[in-house]
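To illustrate the input format used throughout this study, we show a single complete record. The first block contains the structure-token representation of the backbone; no residue identities are included at this stage. The design step must infer an amino acid for every position from geometry alone.
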């Protein structure tokens, strides 16, 4: 590896890590034929390669709880400051939830129709399941299938949020875990928005600080990601062959299809029938925003461009677009929620974890909340995906399967995230004073 490798961008290094690791694994799988060879390979995998691969994932795990709590509370508190903006605030909350929910519904539909995780042989799936899962499927079956739906829903409201946080990643925990922590954060955020600001400023400052620190720790983990992905890619293909990679291709296609449906079907329907706006003109006007989001993979980095375009091209009233877009850059992540839904259900399929309808609804709910709590930075959703995976009994390490191509998907979902913010701003502005000056008309 030349020294120049270290100068490559992080996504390029992660992708090459995956390719190198996976190819090396395939070569080794072919080369090892004797029982002694298998034994030696097994030793290396168990004692060196897999631990190295799991290092960065453990660091991500470490910050999932503080990150989810601070991000959801801040996201909801900002969104929920309804009194400040009255009707505009309320409309923003409603449209954000509506757009995110449709995104997750699209995700559930495409992943159940195309079943991207089922494109592997029984043999590979059995090997994967026994290696990573042990009795997890049983646990899922016990934990949720035997529980009446009403109790499952009631279980979302934690009696003791601290206990839920402590046990969130415990293998045999059958309580709410991470989702209960999310629900607690939701309540906390709503209450924070309602409390007098002079009494809660310090608390908000602590939460903002916690969030920033978590972001820096994720940065540490991501520096180790190229090595980690190479090791995990190696151990997957050395044991399971190319089957896993084929599934990855299907998965990518299904995510892109879901995102395209939301971008080119759902948004235009909302724009035309609720916003009274020509979708064609809308997309033409926001080209610059789409390009910026696609190239930066960050809603936050795209915010200045979105603000300008909303005012100069879409002619939205500034007080509305500023509020909706600023809050939406971190709290309205439709593309991310959609992507999380597909990813979690894909990995559940890969690992043969059968999710009942109730469980899928719970996953959908978690993805909607995750959409509220995802940082608008590249890879901001990864800690949340890890958290949701563990909650439904899929090993968090399995995220390595998709990490190599995550940047490409991040570019696409971020484009949707910012489009969703602008769609939301158009819908909120409809009928408000100052709107429609030169708003694109039906056409
Ligand atoms: N990169 C996304 C954004 O900034 C967040 C994510 O899905 O990772 O909007």
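Output of the design step:
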């Amino acid at each position: 590896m030349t020294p120049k490798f270290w100068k490559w961008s992080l996504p390029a290094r992660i992708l090459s890590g995956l390719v190198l690791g996976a190819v090396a694994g395939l070569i080794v799988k072919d080369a090892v034929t004797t029982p002694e060879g298998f034994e030696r390979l097994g030793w290396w995998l168990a004692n060196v390669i897999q631990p190295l691969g799991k290092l960065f994932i453990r660091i991500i795990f470490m910050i999932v709880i503080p990150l989810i709590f601070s991000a959801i509370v801040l996201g909801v508190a900002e969104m929920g400051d309804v009194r400040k903006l009255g009707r505009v605030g309320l409309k923003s909350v409603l449209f954000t939830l509506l757009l995110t929910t449709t995104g997750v519904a699209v995700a559930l539909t495409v992943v159940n129709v195309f079943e991207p995780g089922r494109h592997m042989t029984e043999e590979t799936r059995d090997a994967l399941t026994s290696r990573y899962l042990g009795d997890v499927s049983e646990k899922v079956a016990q934990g949720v299938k035997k529980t009446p739906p009403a109790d499952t829903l009631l279980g979302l409201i934690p009696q003791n949020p601290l206990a839920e946080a402590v046990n969130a990643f415990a293998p045999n925990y059958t309580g709410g875990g991470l989702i209960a922590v999310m629900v607690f954060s939701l309540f906390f955020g709503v209450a924070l928005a309602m409390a007098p600001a002079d009494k809660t400023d310090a608390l908000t400052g602590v939460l903002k600080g916690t969030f920033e620190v978590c972001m820096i720790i994720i940065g540490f983990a991501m520096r180790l990601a190229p090595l980690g992905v190479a090791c995990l890619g190696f151990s997957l293909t050395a044991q399971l062959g190319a089957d896993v990679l084929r599934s990855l291709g299907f998965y990518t296609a299904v995510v892109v299809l879901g995102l395209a449906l939301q971008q080119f079907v759902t948004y235009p329907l909302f724009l035309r029938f609720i916003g009274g706006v020509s979708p064609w003109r809308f997309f033409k006007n926001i080209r610059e925003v789409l390009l910026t989001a696609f190239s930066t993979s960050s809603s936050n980095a795209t915010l200045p461009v979105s603000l300008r375009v909303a005012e100069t091209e879409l002619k939205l009233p500034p007080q509305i677009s500023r509020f909706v877009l600023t809050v939406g850059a971190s709290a309205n992540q439709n593309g991310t929620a959609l992507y999380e839904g597909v990813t979690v259900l894909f990995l559940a399929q890969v690992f043969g974890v059968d999710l009942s309808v109730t469980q899928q609804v719970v996953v959908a709910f978690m993805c909607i909340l995750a959409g509220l709590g995802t940082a608008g930075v590249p890879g901001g959703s990864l800690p949340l995906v890890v958290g949701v995976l563990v909650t439904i009994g899929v090993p968090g390490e399995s995220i390595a399967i998709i990490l190599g191509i995550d940047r490409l998907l991040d570019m696409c979902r971020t484009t949707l995230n910012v489009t969703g913010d602008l769609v939301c701003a158009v819908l909120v502005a409809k009928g408000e004073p100052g709107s429609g000056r030169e708003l694109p008309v039906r056409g």
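Structural context for interpreting the output: Residues 297-299, 333, 336, 374, 376-381, 410, 413-414, 417 surround aspartic acid (CB under 6 Å). Residues 192 and 200 are 7 Å apart (CA to CA).
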